[in-house]
Design goal:
The chain is built from twelve helices and no strands. With about 270 residues, the chain is mainly α. The chain has one domain: Glycerol uptake facilitator protein (Up-down Bundle), CATH 1.20.1080.10. The longest helix has about 30 residues.
Length: about 270
């Protein structure tokens, strides 16, 4: 049992590191790589598709070992409504956060020259002070407009985005629903993340994952990026928002979908009676 849990924790650490390396890497690439200088719309699409495929790769790599949670909000929701052992919740959260930090470390080594030249901007997280307002929103007038979102509004966006993520995860692996065949579940989850980024990501930068935000945030603080833990956004938006959104997502899926799905036994009974 200990070996099984150890394997799951190693997988969650490794998978979350891959997630951050490729996902945050898309943000850093847009913000710091000269060859990516292009129209704001393309930058936003680059980031959204980067996160989509980051999820796909990470879940395919480790999903067979740990289930590929890679997100404390997913782990929490699964413990509340899917029988995931509560004894594993904190260890999974720790593993996911360590993985996110390690992914950010590798990313720092890859883009170190650009980060130094730019003065260590906040490419690590969303919210106040992050580079996203310059990287993908275009001119000053537009950046001023989108920068007016309140912490409450951005937190609601985080919760809503995480709920959509849970809907995608639950539907992808629900054998009683339409289901995703041929081991394509991780791809569908990646598409859910893409949909969140394209449709709901504007107000907050769609962290939708406490570990994804907190691990790189700590790395940013250690290398000298300013403002990493100023104010309350770091706690309310990317941590409380996704945890609440994950619960909302799994409860609404069960209320609106699970209870109405026809069981296979019921279908057989109907066929026999007819």
């Amino acid at each position: 049992m200990k070996n099984k849990l150890l394997g799951e924790l190693v997988a969650e650490t490794f998978g979350t590191a891959i997630l951050v390396l490729l996902g945050v890497g898309g943000v850093v690439n847009v913000g710091l790589a000269p060859r990516m200088a292009s129209a704001a719309g393309w930058n936003w699409l680059t980031i959204c598709f980067g996160w989509c495929f980051a999820v796909v790769v990470a879940v395919y790599v480790v999903g067979g070992v740990s289930g590929g949670h890679l997100n404390p909000a997913v782990t929490f929701a699964m413990a509340v409504k899917r029988g995931f052992p509560w004894s594993k919740v904190i260890p999974f959260w720790v593993a996911q956060t360590i993985g996110a930090f390690l992914g950010a470390v590798v990313l720092f080594l890859v883009y170190r020259d650009g980060l130094v030249a730019a003065g260590f901007p906040n490419v690590w997280t969303g919210g106040p002070g992050s580079v996203f307002s310059q990287a993908w929103w275009g001119d000053t007038a537009v950046r001023t407009a989108v920068g007016s979102y309140s912490i409450l509004t951005a937190t609601i966006a985080e919760a809503a985005g995480t709920a959509v993520l849970l809907w995608g995860i639950l539907a992808a692996f629900d054998a009683k629903n339409l289901g995703v065949g041929a081991n394509l579940g991780p791809l569908f989850v990646g598409f859910a993340v893409l949909a969140v980024g394209l449709s709901l990501g504007g107000p907050s930068g769609y962290m939708i994952n406490p570990a994804r935000d907190f691990g790189p945030r700590v790395l940013g603080m250690l290398i000298g990026t300013k403002g990493m833990f100023d104010g309350i956004w770091w706690l309310v938006g990317p941590i409380i928002g996704p945890l609440a959104g994950g619960l909302f997502g799994i409860f609404t899926y069960d209320f609106c979908v699970t209870k109405w799905l026809v069981k296979k036994d019921d279908v057989i009974s109907e066929e026999v009676s007819s």
